[in-house]
Amino acid sequence: MKQTCDAVVEGGGVRGIGLAGAAYAFERAGYGFGRLAGSSAGAIIASLLAAGYGGGELEEIMRHIDYERFKQKDFIDYFGTAGKLLSVGISYGVYGADYFESWLGDLLGKKGVGTFGDLRDKKKLRVTATDVTDKKLLVLPDDLPTLGIDPDKFSIAAAVRMSISIPIFYEPSSLAGLDGCAHYIVDGGLLSNFPVWILDDGVSVPETPVFGFRFTEKDPGGGPLEKKKPCPRMSFPEYLKAVISTALAARDAEYNYNVKDDGARTVDIPITVEVSGKRHRIDATDFDITPAQSAALFNNGIEAGTRFLLSWDFPEWQKARRLSCARINAVG
């Protein structure tokens, strides 16, 4: 009989295959996933798990993604930097995401899932997005009624598309609100990239484990990292992408640890991989990741998940949480 657990899955761009590896390790250890929450790439993994995909299936899917197709170009994008700047000025982003939404919709459809209403458990999946019109975080599907939208009829693939839409890099989604305004929706990681708080308020003792899957910059050691390529002057789109990635990381550091014991129940997946004796650091926007690097990152996830479960003790964690809650209540 499977043990039920809930999981929060961090965003990480093309590194999502590492998250799939961690999920596979948990599945292999006898866990089944109940509630799931995620942001950006984490929303992709969370949605596929919620639809019923297993770890082995996720490996197959993530390993064969052609990430370059996720950089969907309009006609003007083929005119170099000037075209990209014009695209940003017209569409608020360089690349479209219609292909991504169609790709994910097809995968979910194979499991008989299209909308949030198609999930047997209506509370099974939550993903984050950012409403830049109202300057606030959205938890989908919960916050859709505030925009006059029926959550049960809303496409999961469309919600995940919103969650992955890195500002400037991707064109935002647009929803008509009750106020008659266009609401532009972008990457949930802009405000919360590791939304543990959706499934755990930090002041109660969960009856079911709430695990976190996230990436770590900590290097497991070994030889020097392989240099990817020379470092010429950044193009303007590359500069914008670097600024946004830095901003996301800074906000994430501020947002993540409102729940103080997150670290004790979180699987940290290294983003450094070794292929043919050479070590590489995989960044979120490395759309040219090789199949060998993808396989190594998946294995990083498996190893991290397996190592974590060897020392995991839920009753001990619950005991520590009770003590933490008692201290909070005493101060309050």
Protein architecture, described:
This protein starts with a strand and ends with a helix. α1 (16-28) packs across α8. The chain has helices at residues 16-28, 41-51, 55-63, 80-91, 98-109, 156-164, 236-255, 291-311, 314-331; strands at residues 3-9, 31-38, 93-95, 125-131, 136-140, 168-170, 173-176, 182-187, 210-216, 266-270, 272-275, 278-281. The radius of gyration is 20 Å and the shape is globular. The chain is α/β, with parallel strands linked by helices. The protein is 38% helix and 19% strand. The strands form three sheets. Strands 1, 2, 4, 5, 7, 8, 9 and 10 form an eight-stranded mixed sheet that branches. Strands 3-6 form a two-stranded parallel ribbon. A two-stranded antiparallel sheet has the order 11-12.
Average residue pLDDT = 83
Beta strand %: 15-25%
Gross morphology: globular
User: How many beta-strand segments?
Assistant: 12
How many helices? 9
Report the major sheet: 8 strands, mixed
Quote the distance from N terminus to C terminus.
41 Å
Compressed to H and E, one letter per element, the order equals: EHEHHHEHEEHEEEEHEEEHH
Our Rg estimate from Cα atoms comes to 20 Å
Task: Quickly give the structural class.
Answer: alpha/beta
Indicate the multimeric state: single chain
